[in-house]
Write a structure and sequence with these properties.
This protein has helices at residues 2-22, 31-37, 39-55, 61-73, and strands spanning 75-77, 82-83, 88-89, 95-97, 102-103, 108-109, 114-116, 128-129, 134-135, 140-142, 146-147, 152-153, 158-159, 168-170, 175-179, 182-183. It is an alpha/beta fold and 196 residues long. It has one domain (2-191): UDP N-Acetylglucosamine Acyltransferase, domain 1, CATH 2.160.10. Strand 15 and strand 16 (182-183) form a beta hairpin. The relative contact order is 0.09. The structure holds coenzyme A. Residues 91, 110, 136-137, 152, 154-156, 168, 170-171, 177-178 line the site of coenzyme A. Coenzyme A (COA) binds next to strand 14 and strand 15.
Length: 196
């Protein structure tokens, strides 16, 4: 039990640190105020509990927690989705994270982002987002694609192909305007950086 409390406190500290470092509006705001009023932080805390219960095989409760969290924050995260450390959702309303989505460390999402499926497929059908990715407001990332580490997805992009690491993708259909940090004339996407 003391281990659980210590881990929970450490996670909350990391969530607050992520808000402080990535939300300009959080600069100078007390940690307690962020915990009390930032919807992205609430959604993440609720997801941690829901995910732990889901992984332990507890029925009903994980979905109930996710449903209440969605009603309060406007952020819908399936209890099975896996989320790393330092995750931050800014503003939050309208974010949907699907069942088989996998999010690594230090990822930032803005409002209206969908990590969704393309249809009625079963199995792995939602995006994998690697470390240090930023996904702009309203972006839709669909299917079991991989967004490589350090990449940016522009606001309102629709992305259905893998994104190379350290790239910037914009538009509908999403296309790279920067690859590996440089500029790009490329019109096609690279191979899956995760090799999948
Ligand atoms: C994509 C983004 C990260 C900028 O990345 P960047 O690497 O700095 O890219 P640039 O600003 O140099 O833009 C590169 C090109 O993409 C275009 N572009 C940038 N963002 C775009 C977008 N969201 N949709 C379409 N085109 C976009 C630019 O016009 C530019 O085109 P050009 O080369 O023909 O002039 C940024 O524009 C963005 O969309 N951020 C999301 C922020 C957000 O959601 N904020 C919400 C706060 S509430």
């Amino acid at each position: 039990m003391p281990g659980l409390v210590a881990r929970t406190v450490a996670e909350i500290r990391r969530d607050v640190a992520a808000a402080h470092s990535r939300d300009p509006a959080a600069r100078g705001v007390a940690a307690a105020e962020i915990v009390a009023t930032w919807p992205g932080v609430h959604a993440l805390l609720a997801h941690r509990v829901a995910h732990a219960l889901y992984t332990a095989g507890v029925p009903f409760l994980p979905r109930a927690i996710a449903a209440v969290s969605r009603a309060v924050t406007g952020i819908e995260i399936h209890p099975a989705a896996t989320i790393g450390n330092g995750f931050f959702i800014d503003h939050g309303m309208g974010v949907v994270i699907g069942e088989t989505a996998e999010i690594s460390d230090n990822v930032t999402l803005y409002q209206g982002v969908t990590l969704g499926g393309t249809g009625f497929a079963t199995g792995k059908r939602h995006p994998t987002v690697q470390d240090n990715v930023t996904i702009g407001s309203g972006a839709k990332l669909l299917g079991p694609i991989t967004v490589g580490h350090g990449s940016k997805v522009g606001a309102n992009s629709v992305v259905i192909h893998d994104v190379l690491p350290h790239s910037t993708v914009v538009g509908n259909p999403g296309h790279p305007v920067r690859v590996e940090g440089g500029s790009s004339q490329a019109t096609s996407f690279g191979p899956n950086p995760a090799g999948g």
